[in-house]
Amino acid sequence: MEKVKTLPGQHQFMSVRQLTVAGFLSAITIFLGLTGYGFIPLIIMNATILHIPTIIGSISAGRRVGMIVGFMFGLFSFIRTLQAPSALLMFAVQYSIVADAFICIVPRIMIGVVAYELYKHLKIREVARVAVTAVVTTVCHTVMFLGSFTAIVGMPYAEAHGITLANVFNIMAGITVVNGIPEAIVSGLIVTPIVMALHRSGLKVQ
């Protein structure tokens, strides 16, 4: 569980350490988002590594930190869809700004929850625990993001392109395989050594 020291009679949302970590990882997310280094353009959507600071934050500093950093990830993803949307999210923007904001932001906030809960409940060697959390959380992120798109604008998207909803599901499944698997592998390779180093320095969820 996340343990945060509080003064008698007071409830503290986050410790100073958690706020510091959240600010630092949010800054990294902002940098990656503003420069575009966090997005990898593909044919119909952008692959991303912006989820990595969120996972690191959740495993190293707790659920709240992960959710805050995830929100920053989602916010920059949303801003990017307004500036240079992928072919897929261009439809979401044209259909509804609110729908686009939900699709971009909410699944990214949930990365923090998923990563924290996975790490908390896995009972395996620490290195494997971190790696599995990073890989599985990345796959879950892809599923949550594409699932949100399908649930909110899947039917209008199918109608606009003259295809069935089943074909939309097939498209989402294809993107999950093409984008999600490489993203998951990269996530495991990057997150694991960074988190292990942070743990050795004393930054770890208790």
From TrEMBL:
The keyword ATP-binding is assigned to this record: no
Protein's recorded name: ECF transporter S component
InterPro entries for the chain: ECF_trnsprt_substrate-spec
Keyword Transmembrane helix: yes
One Pfam family per UniProt: ECF_trnsprt
Record keywords, A-Z: Membrane, Transmembrane, Transmembrane helix
Entry's transmembrane regions: 20-44, 65-83, 95-119, 131-157, 169-198
Phylogenetic placement of the source organism: Bacteria, Bacillati, Bacillota, Negativicutes, Veillonellales
Secretion signal span: none
Molecular function GO terms recorded: transmembrane transporter activity
